[in-house]
Write a structure and sequence with these properties.
The complex is a heterodimer of chains A (about 240) and B (about 240). In chain A, about 80% of the residues lie in helices and about 0% in strands. Chain A has about 240 residues and is an all-alpha fold. The longest helix of chain A is centred in the middle third of the chain and has 33 residues, at about 70-100. Chain B starts with a helix and ends with a helix. Chain B is built from 8 helices and no strands. Classes of the chains: A mainly alpha (about 240), B mainly alpha (about 240).
Chain lengths: ~240, ~240
């Protein structure tokens, strides 16, 4: 099979018979569609990280105090630790199915830049896990006594932070592709790298809760996300190739 | 040719013999320098006017901290060389270096917290340097865990090399975000020895210890590298000839 034929076999509907290979953007769009469609067919995978996040948020009032005035002080830490752990939980699904049924191999053989394909996959993963977490974080914040004025700040910071988490997670998941029961190892690899996200994210959230300007921390979170977008797919692609050999 | 020495480094028997020849040239100077540095630091140097004798743990702490970072860099560079030029010996260097680096990091953490007790009144302070050292320790653990997770040695080499390169890009980001976090969250200021104001009687033993520790690392690395090469080449004929089996 020629390169484009392999890609067509993998991605049904890519301009069959039109002669020319589809553009990189078209391929990325198809991959996004495919991943989203597959994920919605197995929606329990989508709900589990969110339920986990809600559960972690519930643990703290039960363990520490139900007083909202005191919970407010630890709300930023609870939200961010919960969000990081929940996005770690979701990472196992990122490449696992595609690696098992050989789809990932076809991506690597398709002649397309694997970095681009993995970027699209990571984007889908973020839409499926990062964005729902970001949308849920303000709700969890309200439950922890955060004033409503702080909610936009929480939404913005968790949105940016989960982007970087998805990217770092893609590297971690790609590195541990060949490892069975990689859960604990994946956390050990990914969490130290995610510390800057935690620091700037929790700081932005804390400033938002106190009603102070939090733009500087958001900018740093955005910088981390851009940095991650530039380099993480390269590392993920290298790791995927090694693991497929 | 000027490059033959480099190409010969790709040959395991050559590296095995060279490492064996070089090791004593590192080990003996290291022993002499470390003894000299200890005598200079523990007996000859005057007590600090604020810290008394407690500062003397610096003579172990600071060189360990320096090596904890240097070894990680060496590991990443060796991993990168192994990835790019597919040089097996470079991977062996990285594999040999990782446990040494983790040990130096652990030594830094232990001596740091022992130093913290008389100075800060507590064994552990969330001080930026100690915290980023702790994160570095986690990075080492992740690296060694990933390496151990693969049965296939070549894959373990290359996957962990990608992780080391990703890690070395992240180490400065992690360090500066931790410094930034600390300057925001921690009220009481932490006192450090002002390095430039250190009198020569304190500084010279410290520099001797730095050099001694670095040579010690070189000696241990060469010895571990010999073991690593032997283990990797255990089926090769030259190993049987070398050992005389």
């Amino acid at each position: 099979m020629s390169d484009t034929n392999v890609l067509r076999a993998t991605l049904p509907g890519v301009g069959v018979g039109r002669g020319s290979a589809p553009s990189a953007l078209a391929v990325a769009r198809l991959m996004l569609e495919r991943d989203l469609r597959l994920a919605f067919r197995k929606s329990s995978q989508l709900v589990q990280p969110l339920a986990f996040f809600a559960m972690v948020t519930t643990l703290f009032p039960l363990a520490i105090t139900p007083e909202l005035s005191r919970l407010r002080h630890i709300a930023s830490g609870v939200l961010w630790a919960g969000a990081l752990l929940a996005s770690l939980l979701a990472l196992e699904f990122l490449f696992r199915d595609d690696a098992q049924d050989g789809t990932l191999e076809q991506y690597a053989l398709s002649g397309r830049a694997l970095t681009g394909l993995l970027s699209a996959k990571t984007a889908a993963h973020w839409l499926l896990t990062g964005l729902p977490l970001a949308l849920m974080a303000p709700l969890a914040g309200v439950a922890l006594g955060v004033p409503t004025g702080a909610l936009p700040g929480i939404l913005a910071s968790v949105t940016l932070g989960t982007v970087t988490m998805s990217l770092l997670g893609a590297v971690g998941a790609a590195l541990t592709l060949g490892v069975r029961r990689a859960g604990a190892l994946l956390s050990l690899l990914t969490l130290p790298l995610a510390i800057p996200v935690l620091i700037f994210g929790a700081h932005a959230t804390q400033l938002a809760i106190r009603g102070e300007p939090y733009g500087a921390s958001l900018t740093l979170l955005a910088a981390l996300a851009v940095f991650g977008m530039t380099l993480a797919p390269l590392a993920a692609a290298a790791a995927v190739r090694i693991n497929l050999e | 040719m000027a490059w033959t020495w480099f190409h010969r480094l790709a040959s395991p028997p050559h590296v095995y013999r060279t490492a064996g020849r070089l090791a004593p040239w590192f080990a003996w100077p290291a022993a002499i320098l470390i003894i000299a540095g200890l005598v200079g630091g523990l007996w000859l140097a005057p007590p600090d006017y604020q810290q008394g004798d407690a500062y003397r743990i610096m003579y172990v702490h600071a060189p360990s901290a320096w090596l904890s970072l240097m070894v990680y860099t060496i590991m990443a560079v060796a991993g990168g060389i192994g990835l790019i030029w597919r040089m097996k010996v470079a991977h062996a260097v990285a594999a040999a270096a990782a446990p040494i680096g983790a040990s130096f990091t652990f030594a830094t953490l232990v001596t740091g917290s022992l130093w913290g007790k008389p100075m800060w009144g507590t064994y552990w302070q969330w001080d930026p340097r100690l915290t980023s050292e702790l994160l570095l320790f986690f990075l080492y653990l992740g690296y060694m865990g990933l390496r151990a997770a693969f049965e296939d040695l070549q894959r373990a080499d290359r996957v962990s090399a990608v992780l080391a390169v990703v890690g070395v890009v992240n180490v400065p980001i992690i360090h500066y975000s931790v410094v930034w976090w600390n300057s925001l969250h921690q009220g009481p200021s932490v006192m450090y020895l002002g390095k430039p104001t250190m009198p020569p009687s304190m500084l010279v033993p410290l520099l001797i210890m730095f050099l001694g520790f670095t040579l010690f690392f070189g000696a241990v690395l060469l010895m571990r590298l010999r073991g690593e090469v032997l283990n990797r080449e255990r089926t090769a004929r030259w190993v049987a000839e070398e050992i005389g089996a």
